[in-house]
């Protein structure tokens, strides 16, 4: 049966996370319903990267199997059915066995913080109007790349076999009055980016020393800090070079 990858972006404010949940409106449930409306057939989707309630994505993926005829205006019509908070970007016809979760090489997140009150940033950035020592925060971010055990930066009751992650990018970026934490790695634990961000803000406020921050990676104690979901974006899901079909085999918006 043909396998397709669906690329999408979304604003997560109004949704109870990414994955289907009973009696809850999620990204997956809305996309599956839209597909059923368009093709008159129920199809189950598999997600690449789960995001929590209120978290956004600039890029994420589903894959699904479907042996019917795909509507030639698939992207346009799916977007017409879906609310303005979800945008379908592309549909790719993939080789058999392609898997949007297991084939991903890395994922990249950004956490956005605005320092001065901005009505246009509400819902997509965290208002944090306090003095910060960026030198200390940058040192803390550099430490993250040297670590592998992220037990302290994982929500409790998370069902995983291990807490090991390989982080390739960890940096703070200042963009005018906005501050952005950028992190990219091979995998992420539940709540990990928000817990790391909150801890480094504590470092920047000089309420947590660099030594105490580093100790979280060795002492198997939960850090206990977090920031709101609204500032977090899944920015990119990376696959190997030439993983996707050549242009012309996917459907773009018209």
From TrEMBL:
<protein>
    <recommendedName>
        <fullName>tRNA pseudouridine synthase A</fullName>
        <ecNumber>5.4.99.12</ecNumber>
    </recommendedName>
</protein>
<dbReference type="InterPro" id="IPR020097">
    <property type="entry name" value="PsdUridine_synth_TruA_a/b_dom"/>
</dbReference>
<dbReference type="InterPro" id="IPR020094">
    <property type="entry name" value="TruA/RsuA/RluB/E/F_N"/>
</dbReference>
<dbReference type="GO" id="GO:0003723">
    <property type="term" value="F:RNA binding"/>
</dbReference>
<feature type="binding site">
    <location>
        <position position="109"/>
    </location>
    <ligand>
        <name>substrate</name>
    </ligand>
</feature>
<comment type="subunit">
    <text>Homodimer.</text>
</comment>
<feature type="domain" description="Pseudouridine synthase I TruA alpha/beta">
    <location>
        <begin position="148"/>
        <end position="239"/>
    </location>
</feature>
<dbReference type="InterPro" id="IPR020095">
    <property type="entry name" value="PsdUridine_synth_TruA_C"/>
</dbReference>
<comment type="function">
    <text>Formation of pseudouridine at positions 38, 39 and 40 in the anticodon stem and loop of transfer RNAs.</text>
</comment>
<feature type="active site" description="Nucleophile">
    <location>
        <position position="52"/>
    </location>
</feature>
<dbReference type="GO" id="GO:0031119">
    <property type="term" value="P:tRNA pseudouridine synthesis"/>
</dbReference>
<feature type="domain" description="Pseudouridine synthase I TruA alpha/beta">
    <location>
        <begin position="9"/>
        <end position="102"/>
    </location>
</feature>
<dbReference type="Pfam" id="PF01416">
    <property type="entry name" value="PseudoU_synth_1"/>
</dbReference>
<keyword id="KW-0413">Isomerase</keyword>
<dbReference type="GO" id="GO:0160147">
    <property type="term" value="F:tRNA pseudouridine(38-40) synthase activity"/>
</dbReference>
<dbReference type="InterPro" id="IPR020103">
    <property type="entry name" value="PsdUridine_synth_cat_dom_sf"/>
</dbReference>
<dbReference type="InterPro" id="IPR001406">
    <property type="entry name" value="PsdUridine_synth_TruA"/>
</dbReference>
<keyword id="KW-0819">tRNA processing</keyword>
<comment type="similarity">
    <text>Belongs to the tRNA pseudouridine synthase TruA family.</text>
</comment>
